[in-house]
Amino acid sequence: MKKVDVVGAVLVNENDEILCALRSQAMSLPGMWEFPGGKIEAGESPQDALRREIKEELGIEITVGELIADVTHEYPAVIVRLLTYYARMINSEVVPIAAEHEKLEWLGRDELAKLEWAPADIPTVERIYRV
Ligand SMILES: Nc1nc2c([nH]c(=O)n2[C@H]2C[C@H](O)[C@@H](COP(=O)(O)OP(=O)(O)OP(=O)(O)O)O2)c(=O)[nH]1
């Protein structure tokens, strides 16, 4: 089966809220929430891929921090290895705009469990969730 290496950003703002992104009908896994990011290209480090994808998808510059989870999940058509990293916006005054996602939402850590997450994201959500 096809295997892809994917990075996702757990972007945290000044209120300790986390940016959650809803996959659109044009994407695979439509209607599921994820951490913005995408596939790592040949020759790219995970951090480089994440900075590039976040610029493309949200129009913002980030700094990439600590690794949160390294999860391999087998979907029906693809095996995804998802690496998630904490990230911060370089300029907190710029507003992220969804170029591809249906919707973006900043949520508190205690609110994350109410969303329907892509299965590969569950270990990350469990790690950052705070009741
Ligand atoms: N970006 C991102 N992708 C995720 C997450 N969780 C998860 O299972 N995925 C999956 C969905 C896709 O199969 C793949 C990411 O590829 P992508 O974001 O470049 O997706 P895409 O729609 O361009 O690709 P495709 O699946 O339509 O080929 O990883 C996540 O938190 N962030």
From TrEMBL:
Q: Which reaction does it catalyse?
A: 8-oxo-dGTP + H2O = 8-oxo-dGMP + diphosphate + H(+)
Pfam families noted in UniProt: NUDIX (PF00293)
Keywords, A to Z? DNA damage, DNA repair, DNA replication, Hydrolase, Magnesium, Metal-binding, Mutator protein
User: What does the entry give for GO biological process?
Assistant: DNA repair; DNA replication
Q: Does the keyword Metal-binding apply?
A: yes
Any GO MF annotation of the entry? 8-oxo-7,8-dihydrodeoxyguanosine triphosphate pyrophosphatase activity
Q: What class of enzyme is it?
A: hydrolase
Q: Which residues form a coiled coil?
A: none
Entry EC no(s): 3.6.1.55
The cofactor(s) it depends on are: Mg(2+)
Q: Which SUPFAM superfamilies match?
A: Nudix
* Protein's UniProt keywords contain Hydrolase: yes
* Domain of life from the UniProt record: Bacteria
What PROSITE patterns does UniProt report for this protein, alphabetically? NUDIX, NUDIX_BOX
Fetch the PANTHER family from UniProt.
8-OXO-DGTP DIPHOSPHATASE (PTHR47707), NUDIX HYDROLASE FAMILY PROTEIN (PTHR47707:SF1)
Q: State the family it belongs to.
A: Belongs to the Nudix hydrolase family.
Protein name listed in UniProt = 8-oxo-dGTP diphosphatase
